[in-house]
Known about the structure:
Blueprint: H1 15-30, E1 36-41, H2 45-61, E2 64-65, E3 74-79, H3 84-103, E4 108-113, H4 119-128, E5 134-135, H5 144-154, E6 183-187, E7 189-190, H6 201-205, E8 209-210, H7 213-226, E9 230-234, H8 251-259, E10 266-270, H9 279-287, E11 294-296, H10 304-309, H11 316-329, E12 334-341, H12 348-361, E13 365-370, H13 388-411, E14 417-426, E15 431-436, E16 441-444, E17 455-463, E18 468-472
Parallel strand pairs: 1-2, 1-3, 3-4, 4-5, 6-9, 9-10, 11-12, 12-13, 16-18
Antiparallel strand pairs: 7-8, 14-15, 14-17, 15-16, 17-18
The structure holds 5'-deoxyadenosine (5AD) and iron/sulfur cluster.
Amino acid sequence: MSNGKFKIYDKLNDVTHYTELIKDNFSVFYKDKKAKVYVHSYGCLQSVSDGEKLKGILVDMGYIATDVLEEADVILYNTCAVRENAEDRVFGNVGVLKALKKQNKQLIIGIAGCMTEQDDVKKRIQKSYPYVDLIMGSNAFDILPKLLYDKLSNNKKYVELEPITEKSDIIENIPVYRDDKIKANVSIMYGCDNFCSYCIVPYVRGRERSRASSEILEEIENLVKQGYKEIMLLGENVNSYGKGLENDIDFPTLLKKINAIKGEFWVRFMSSHPKDCSKELIDTVAACDKIEKHIHLPMQSGSNSILKVMNRKYTIEHFMSLVDYVKEKIPNATLSTDIIVGFPNETREDFEDTLSALRKARFDTVFSFIYSKRTGTVAAKLDDSVTDKEKSDRMCELLSIQNEIIVEKMQSYVDKTLRVLVDTYNTERNSVLGRDSGGILIEIENGDKTLKGRFVDVLITSAKRTLLLGKIV
Length: 473
Ligand code: 5AD
Ligand code: SF4
């Protein structure tokens, strides 16, 4: 039954078999209707990338991709468990589907992703949303065809998940459905071994597993041949790339190999854990022309005592030494970070340390989050002396300081020339938008549609808080 497309699939649950069965019987299940699939991913880019694979598998079976929820025959939500508000949104959106299911009895609703790895969530879905047909985990690729086939052929619901373990295989050659034709996400590793005390990821995505470098390089070569101009390498901690692989390879070496691929394209990556971010990695970013001059280095807190309880395994002094090294070696680099505000028992002094680190590092982008308690994590067991009001006040304070920094930084680009990858045409303003190698958004006033997907040099004429304006030189 194998068409040779899913290499490791055959070892796992005979997935190719079920994919082929659905393909062969598609017209029986849907009576020659052009059945459609709607996939939506919540959360990080890794989740978006997983969603592109789930959509790819379904389109390969014969479904037509749609962005209109109401016309779909299969609706798949690929969920995120990192913070509670993302989970609340999923529950809200699943609630809305009840009415659609009443209108279309044949509609199949599936929930995949990190949220469904948590027992309490799985139980809540089964109890409160009985019209959900399929529940899959964060490794949904290997189970989706079987679950879907069971549903289509026997009207069977919910197949229990295999718990993810360190042994979970990486499935290669899954068809990927990418909406974007210029930028492509490529996962290089899955899972996380770090167990930061606040974070649910290691529990729901399992242990670190790296893809073989040959598979990654082949995928990127193909994407570049197809015309993709920006490749985003994804992993919870890309600096751990290569651990456990037969061939001895680390992340800087992988980057150098990617840089050697022929063609005009840029490559970027996230996330990079500060404890494992080596000088060699920063030197590699500095030396390789295709690697974008942008580093995402999640700081989380500026206080050493909070970093310790967070189990981050670095001090703020070490973090700052990395920031200084980036600035010294790559003067035009942009830096972004993640910060958690209101971690349990964060004192005013701890928070002041975060603000002073913010002022020192002068990040170009800060993703800040109010601490969200995640059941099962170590931090969830801590008592918390900080009130919700204090947490949201601190968040406002942090945002206002970062705002001042960003306004000054954006102003400093005026009169400079930046190389920009154009990715969007703005019909209303008849202009085009793109980003430079540091990820800064730039509107080109004298650009036209034909520039989409091309690199151009742009002279910056003025700056707003989130956008630079410029003209092609
Ligand atoms: N609460 C708030 N933010 C969190 N993050 C991870 N877990 C939590 C949590 N429980 C943030 C971290 C991480 C980013 C992806 O999400 O800042 O770097
Ligand atoms: Fe979560 Fe820490 Fe792993 Fe990042 S490194 S995914 S924050 S446990």
